[in-house]
Amino acid sequence: MPADFEEKRDFQRLNLTDRVHFRATNHTGIYRGLTLDISASGMRMQTDAELTAGETLTLIIPSHHSALKPFSAEAVVIRIENTHPDAPKVVSLNFTDVF
Questions:
Q1: Where in this chain does the record put each PilZ domain (predicted)?
Q2: pTM for the full model?
Q3: Out of 38, 51, 68, 85, which residue is the most buried by the measure of CB atoms under 10 Å away?
């Protein structure tokens, strides 16, 4: 990064590659995705699910440690990037509630 680079985000993003399960309010069933990064205010994930901007999701990232509960949150879809028709979509989410 350039020496004069100034971070514009309120919270630092951490790379996190893990499975995520989610339910969309406008769909039935549970969908799967793969997290790309996460911060205190949101996350990005890859998924094949058909989602739309503004849609609300209930997310669960399972814990890998028996003493820790899974991460659960509600989030709104902010942006969907589809770089190739055969590739998973990259979905940007903003957390509205963390359980």
A1: 7-97
A2: 0.84
A3: 38
